[in-house]
Specification:
By secondary structure, this protein is α/β, with parallel strands linked by helices. It contains ten helices and eleven strands. It starts with 12 loop residues before the first strand and ends in a 29-residue tail after the last helix.
């Protein structure tokens, strides 16, 4: 009798809920996900603490255990590594899902060049107010919360999707959709070198250098907690340490002279922001990170490799567009099809 092999198909979507410590917040997130659960998905909860599973839901949810005391970044990486879906959705403990929040992001990934999709995070007490819309990493090494950017908020309030310099380079650490093979491209997922405050900005640099497109989907809404759950407020020393590491890890692909000038400006801004008591510890943290800049050489080579691959891919795509086959029939020139864009839909205004 021939052996029979059961082929188990991987799910289309993996929903990862990283939970460093707050199991009550995790249960709140889990309830919202199960209530609006899409088809063809798995749910993975990455725990950095003990959880007794009082509701006996292990048949519906897969729990993976990180070492006790693991950070949010470590829990995210563990959950991503344990997931099996083509698309990985991170939704940190304390954040809540809404009706149909995964539908349009999954459609976005039908384009092969899309690496990540940014959902809009709305305030828990006012779903008309956008509080999260991805991150950017400035040339000087500063993490920029896009939703807090004045230009972005003005554009959103006008009813149009912001463009240009205010477009996010990646999702925030707590809420985002990612193509699963990005984990292989980055090696270990999000870095721990930049701490919880800047790990998402570091990953945004990876996306930018790799040539992957990042799309913001304004019709995918997640509810942010009143206070950012799972993150530990960094000390001034840690803030300086992680910010300096972010700069040196992001410098590949930028003009070094202009990046250095803008970086000095950023240090002055940071010093003023931490004044008076936190300025000296912040500067000490930056000095320590500067002395460790040699550790960023591996990262530098990684980004240069990603840029080279992206360049080759772009050149190949251009060559394919310019190549005309002579061994087959050719269609006449047709009128370009007008593609309906979701971006043309009206946006809800931010408060």
């Amino acid at each position: 009798m021939a052996d029979t092999f059961d082929l188990v198909r991987s799910p289309r979507l993996s929903i990862v809920i990283p939970t460093p410590a707050d199991t009550a917040a995790m249960e709140e997130t889990l309830v919202s996900v199960l209530e609006h659960r899409p088809d063809d998905c798995e749910i993975v909860v990455a725990l950095g603490c003990e959880y007794a599973d009082p509701w006996n839901i292990r048949e519906e949810v897969r729990f993976v255990q990180a070492p006790t005391g693991s950070s949010l970044v470590s829990c995210v990486n563990l959950g991503m590594a344990a997931s099996e879906g083509d698309v990985v959705h991170i939704l940190a403990a304390g954040w809540r899902a809404t009706e149909g929040w995964t539908d349009l992001p999954l459609e976005r990934f039908e384009d092969d060049d899309v690496g990540a999709v940014v959902p809009l995070g709305v305030a828990s007490d006012d779903h008309e107010r956008v509080v999260s819309a991805g991150v950017r990493c400035a040339v000087g090494g500063r993490r920029i919360d896009v939703a807090a950017d004045t230009k972005w908020r003005k554009a959103l309030a006008s009813g149009t999707l912001p463009t240009g310099a205010t477009v996010p380079q990646g999702p925030v650490l707590e809420a985002g959709f990612w193509r699963s093979d990005l984990l292989e491209m980055t090696g270990r997922g999000f870095t721990t070198a930049c701490g919880e405050a800047a790990a998402d900005a570091d990953m945004a640099v990876t996306l930018a250098r790799s040539g992957c497109r990042v799309v913001i989907e304004q019709h995918s809404l997640v509810v942010a907690p009143t206070a950012t759950a799972g993150r530990v407020r960094a000390s001034s020393f840690q803030a300086g340490l992680h910010a300096e590491r972010l700069f040196w890890r992001s410098v590949a692909g930028s003009s070094f002279v202009s990046a250095l000038v803008l970086h000095l400006v950023e240090i002055v801004r940071h010093a003023i922001a931490r004044a008076p008591m936190g300025t000296v510890p912040m500067l000490v943290g930056r000095m320590v990170a500067f002395l460790q800049f040699g550790d960023s050489m591996t990262r530098y080579r990684q980004l240069r490799s990603l840029m080279a691959t992206a360049g080759e891919r772009a050149a190949s795509a251009t060559e394919e567009q310019q190549t005309i086959r002579i061994d087959g029939p050719h269609a006449g020139v047709a009128r370009p099809r007008q593609r309906k864009s979701r971006e043309s839909a009206p946006l809800r205004k931010s408060a």
